[in-house]
Prior knowledge:
Elements: H1 2-25, H2 31-75, H3 86-110, H4 130-142, H5 144-162, H6 177-210, E1 214-218, E2 224-227, H7 229-235, H8 239-242, H9 255-266, E3 271-279, E4 285-296, E5 302-311, H10 313-348, H11 352-365, E6 371-377, E7 384-389, E8 399-400, H12 405-416, E9 420-423, E10 445-453, E11 456-465, H13 473-500, E12 503-510, H14 519-525, E13 528-536, E14 543-550, H15 554-561, E15 567-575, E16 580-586, H16 591-596, E17 602-608, E18 611-619, H17 624-634, E19 639-647, H18 653-663, H19 666-677, H20 689-696, H21 700-719
Antiparallel strand pairs: 1-2, 1-5, 3-4, 4-5, 6-7, 6-11, 7-8, 9-10, 10-11, 12-18, 12-19, 13-14, 13-17, 14-16, 15-16, 17-18
Helix pairs in contact: 1-2, 1-4, 1-5, 2-3, 2-5, 3-5, 3-6, 10-11, 10-13, 11-13, 19-21, 20-21
Amino acid sequence: MVQDELAEERAEWEAYKPHIVAVLNADPDSAAFERSHEYVRTNSDQVLAESDAVTAEFARVIRDRRAELERVLAVLLAVDVTVAVLGGLFAREYIGRPMAAIARTGRKLAAGETGSADDLDVPVDRSLPEHEQRAEIAQLTTSFEAVQEYHRTASEQARALAARNFDDPVLDATVPGELGAALESMYDDLQVYIHELQTTTEKLDAVIEASPAAILITDPQGRIERSNPAAEEIFGWNSSEVAGELNPAIPDDDREDFRNLLSTVIAGDPVTGIERQRRTASGETIDVSISMATVSGPDGELSGVMSVVEDITERKERERTLRQQRDELQMLNRITDLVLRITQELVESSSRKRVEETACRTLASSNLYETAWIGDVQAGRSEVRIRTTFEDPDDDVTTVTPDGAIGNAVRRAVETGEVQVVQADGGYLGPVPADADSPASPYRDVAAVPLSYRGTTYGVLVATTTREHAFRARERSGLLTLGNTIGFAINAITNKQLLFADTVVDLTFDVTGTSLPLVATTSELDCSLRLDGFVSSSQTDALTLYLEIDGTDAAGFVEAVKQEPEVVDATVIADEADTRRIAVTFGEQSLFSQLAHHEAPVRSVELDGGEGTYVLEAPLAADVEAIVEQLRSVADGVEFAARHEHERRVTTAAEAATAIQDRLTDRQYEVFKTAYFGGYFEWPRDNTIEELAADMGIAGSTFHHHLRHAQRKLASALFGRSNISMANA
Length: 729
């Protein structure tokens, strides 16, 4: 555009120049002067306007370049480009104004203002004589071609700078006088400007190349024209391979969204910090933050769009982790509140049914879960029995299919003692409260929580929910605590029923030839044994059985019984001809240990050569069928032989004291009472046996003999065979 205007102006100047010369030198009375005077008067305004237009065009090119740089640098957070404005300033100062001065001089001459040279607005040396000043004005007019050459070269240089070509300009023409000096000064300033502009552009390129954020420059249609090394690193592509292509990092489903963003930016609304997901060359999805702005070309028209893309995947992951932890903590607090509420109600519950109904009702009526019920896996059966719900169900469903997701989860919970989580497969989920807010959905997460205490599982609590991200680690931990609490409550109620029941049930089983504990050992050694008592460890839940054996030596029995899988230790207590007593310790997962903490602990074991019976003691309301199935699931061949109810005689404290006193001789009673009141049983002792014996006037050995017999009779009354039961082991 500038080149074309310069060519037109040059042609007009060729026609204009002779008339200027004639006006300056011709006789004012001549016809030539009149013609030239009229021509200059008529055309001087046009020449001046065209000179200003060319100057303005140069300044506009520089301003456009400056505007482009400012837009880029605004995205990259400000590299100083104020030097870009210099072009517009010196172009008009040192090119436009001298040319305008010449045109104005021509206009004055055309108007007949041929007075003193001082009156002419032309940069000449005022110290010269008048005729020399007028001669210099004529010379300036002749040198206007040189000015045009400067103007043309400067315009070309402006276009070169806009195209980022920083070659020095070549100005061959020489203009004399003050105008020449001004043009020389302009030339020097131009060199400084070019250097500063080149430095700024190099800084800009360095910032783009070194930026940790991906920088993409695309055409208005979104095709990539340039990308920096960070883009290659973040997206995993090669810049040369994606040049000219639509951004491959944009998922197909997000193409329309990207086109809308382009339209928004092109319409004049830059985009800052929007978050989207993009795809790397390897197919990985990453989170990014995007800022977008337009880029203009040298002519001021839209050239493309610059996007600055930051990989925020790690930040988003941290945010997601923090949100998850916050949600889990809130969930754990709510579950803890549930556990406390249930525990408070459990303390007041007097029956197992009430305990289970309380747990189910509290869970199902909360906004955490939709349904809650308790089931169990009965020995010898495959299906899961629904034992308790928070309310009577409207349907007749009492079992859950064993091969479904929920059935499998319940069975695994029983086997592992851990919470199992599955997604419902459309099977029975349990009753839903009438006022439930949760929408019905076939896709629910299900948790199967074992109700366990001391290795015994009393059932499985099943809870369902449609919450997102349900049953994570902390929630499972809270539910497991709840399950253990319910298991403890059931165990306590069962033991309480056994301890304080007026009527209990003895269940006798024929265990001949089975794999139950101790049967194989008596068969191998052809000996007999009888259960004498139990001691349950408060530290490990192991159970020690004290046995009286007959028909073999104690040491041989110990070595043989240690081979049984559930036995962890065995020792000889006594090995005399008339008394052979053995202590056998079973692990916490053994049958005896489980029965001891269940609702049907063992009361009696009598075996002879692999034949004999187990007698279990259970509450009157016990599920006898379930107990039978439990034993049969452990060992084939177990036969249920008898069920016998018997009442426990209630003994008052006074009656118990009288009964114990009746067991003692008068001397034993006197010694025992003296030892008690004399502080012998204190720690440390107030008196020794010798001191107490001296007070009674007897020997110390005699005192000790009577005291030991009294203690044995007292222990026998408390722990004798008539009181054997694992319920109070």
